Amino acid sequence: MNQTNAATGHKVFLEEPLRVEDVERAASPLLVVTGPKNIDAVVRCHEFVTRQIDAGVPIYGITTGYGALVGHASAQDSTERSRGLIDFLTVGQGEPLDPGVVRGMLLARLAGLSKGRSGVSLTVVDALRAFLATPLAPVVPRHGSVGASGDLAPLAHAVQALSGRGEVFLDGRRTAARTALESHGLAPMELSGRDALALVNGTSLTASAGSLALARAKRAVDTSLILSAALAEVLGAGADMADDDLTAATGHPEVHSVAARLRQLLSGGFVSGERPLQEAYSLRCVPQLVGGAANVVQWATGVVENDLNGISDNPLFFPELDKVTHGGNFFGQSVAFAADAVTNALTQLANLAERQLDFLVDPHRNGGLPPMLTDEPGRRHGMTGLQLCATSTVMAMRRECVPAGMQSIPTNGHNQDVVPFGNEAALTALRQAERLEWVHGMLALALFQAFHLTGRSATAQGGCLLVSALSGRVAPVHADRPLDEDVRVAGTALYEAVRCEPNQFLGTGHEAA
Q1: Interval 254-301: pLDDT, tens
Q2: Residues 365, 452: contact at Cβ < 8 Å?
Q3: Of 13, 16, 414, 423, which one is least surrounded by beta carbons within 10 A?
Q4: Which residue in 80, 41, 47 sits closest to 62, CA to CA?
Q5: Number of other CB atoms surrounding residue 503 within 10 Å
């Protein structure tokens, strides 16, 4: 199993299946291990492609121009052909992608190339491995890919950096790529044969952003259950909504499993015996809502991990069959649809958290707690600003729920006459996951405040997890004070607690620190 090595940092073995958590680990220096099967496959395929070129076999991007210019002959010089491809694709615009997304993109690209179906030289594989072992990350603009024929522009910017051109991030600062490479003992990558096309001709940005979104989404599902359990304990509501027989009768296994986890989180908690027969849906329907989200996250994780462990390129080479085959394995439709679904699921989790926050600050429904959870209403304002920010954030998330995976616009001289925009779908899902963490941080702060105001200690597992995660990191609110940093601290602390919690519902693949 891919794992963490305390001495050298994170380690990934490419002869084992990649998981979304492996992509998350690539944010920091990563030791990528290629086994003998990988090396043999890469060398054998590269030699096969070289023989095909020497024999004059027509191969896209080697004997032909690129894209819509496939009907024209390519440049004869391999270096000129490679350099020209990377240069004309270096057109990205907008703010730089997060370094973790870019490094994850390089890991995804390396994983595909290491399977020995793309014809790259072993030099390229070694260069990617060496780069990922450093803390460097290419500066890659946000916009430029349509998610078909690979994430061409983003990968071209990354290849420029590995070749000693452009810029990289080093310790959060933009630095000339050649200078940074030299400072880490790396030589600029040299490209020949099919190296350049293979490096850019895959949907690796889509796979990276999708993986990072799902790693966060798994924690978001667990966090939603912890927050819901803490809310129920604050209110003294009990666990009727998570009844085993009730939730089994839905016919949805995820709903039943979520209810079991919720009962575990509520066990031993305070029950007032004074709550209404039926709570509002933001508490009563937690198993059904979070179970539905969990179902989407589990399915989408499978889709993205299939992509991580597949080969996104064109053409592909099968030396053992003496076959060169041209097709569309660089068309990221599956991940596009999955990421769109994840965006919707995360937004519904945000809807839930925002309504639970409203429940908590409303004195008509919150079991006798003061309005806005302030101990001096009028003089102090408690969670007033927090709730407004939650409302604003959830509205922003709702606006992002227009699917990207069917926003096809013909391009490239109608060569790419239908495209999936999987990169946009995946990056949107990642942005939604980041925003949901803010909303969860806001609800966590409010619940922390509510426990303080009740004067009762949390006794159920969910409330105890929340209070333990936030204690010492944030303080109860008395006098009005800025809470912007507290929101981020609370969200991060709770998500980290979930990451290390051994009984999490979906699991995250991380070991407890």
Answers
A1: 999 999 999 999 999 999 888 989 999 999 999 999 999 999 999 999
A2: no
A3: 414
A4: 80
A5: 11
Measure the CA–CA gap between 321 and 344, rounded to whole angstroms: 43
Q: Which of 4, 476, 463 is nearest to 269 (CA)?
A: 463
Residue 435 carries which side chain, given as an amino acid letter? Answer: R
Extended beta strands in 47-122, E state: 93-96
CA distances from 401 to 146, 291, 397, 442 (A): 18, 20, 7, 22
Q: How far apart are CA 511 and CA 500, in angstroms?
A: 6
Helix/strand/coil for 503: coil
Structure tokens given for 177: 């790529």
**Span 454-508, pLDDT tens digits:** 999 999 999 999 999 999 999 999 999 999 999 999 999 999 999 887 666 776 5
CA distances from 309 to 198, 211, 445 (A): 16, 12, 39
Residue 411 sits at φ, ψ, to 5 deg, of: -150, 180
In the chain, % helix, strand, coil (3-state, to 5) comes to: 55, 10, 35
Q: Do the beta carbons of residue 90 and residue 157 sit within 8 Å?
A: yes
Q: Which residues are catalytic?
A: 60
Of 212, 401, 380, 202, nearest to 307 (Cα)? 202
